[in-house]
Amino acid sequence: MSFDAFAEFRMDGHKVLITGGAQNIGAGIAKTLSGAGAKVMIADLNGEKAAETAAAIAAETGNDCRGMACDVTDLAAIEATVAATAAAFGGISTLVNNVGWGGRQPDPAAIPEEEFVRSYKLNTISAYRMSMACLPYLEKAKNGSITNSGSFSSAVPAYDILPYATAKAALNQMMVSLAHLLNKRVRVNSVLIGTVITEGYASAGITPEMQERMMHPDNLTGRPGRPQDIANAMLWLCSPAAAWVSGQTINIHGGGGVTRLFGE
């Protein structure tokens, strides 16, 4: 029998819950994990889009993929989503806290306090609440893991997205602390994501002109990222191939540099 170098990257038997997976990077992660053999539940604020994306993924991969509505800033919605996922799949082994968003705020003096609070609830507290709701299932699973979609903006000057970057920086601290608190029970990691051009940029106030500048990023690969670049890293971290990896932030940003992409 020949040696299969990719065997430990398989996700057969894994039961995945991914937030914000209806489109963009999240949809790419959901498709990749499903393609590796996992059962996947996509939880998204847009339940109709989540179901549509899940159906398309299931048709392509041949594996069980479902979608449902979930407002991750609502604790009752989180608990209902976790319960529904566990009931559908017979448990949860893998949580991907992918949801996150932040609008452009070019004038730091004009950012209202409420904007920081909203960003923290969406990008940080939601990941904590979802992690705690899934924990009883993750602890029972083989290779139980939590992986967060972080942001490169959390580790460099944030320029025009200060509330978002600040909340994502808090997510980094939460990740490493949870990894130590849950040691030997559940692995916890984060991917710091660089510039990935998706359809979601327009809703964040990033104009076509800004996106054009982002197509020529100051990084070592000379190109912006693709959702698949992030999905590949997520597959590794969620799979048994990363069984000895916890408490880590993995930079996936093309060797990113610090450039003010949004203009002065």
From TrEMBL:
Listed A to Z, the keywords are: Oxidoreductase
What molecular function does GO assign, one term? oxidoreductase activity
- Which Gene3D superfamilies does the record associate with it? NAD(P)-binding Rossmann-like Domain
Q: State the SUPFAM superfamilies in the record.
A: NAD(P)-binding Rossmann-fold domains
Q: Where are the transmembrane segments?
A: none
InterPro entries (UniProt xref): NAD(P)-bd_dom_sf (IPR036291), Sc_DH/Rdtase_CS (IPR020904), SDR_fam (IPR002347)
Protein family according to the UniProt entry: Belongs to the short-chain dehydrogenases/reductases (SDR) family.
| Identification of the protein by name | SDR family oxidoreductase
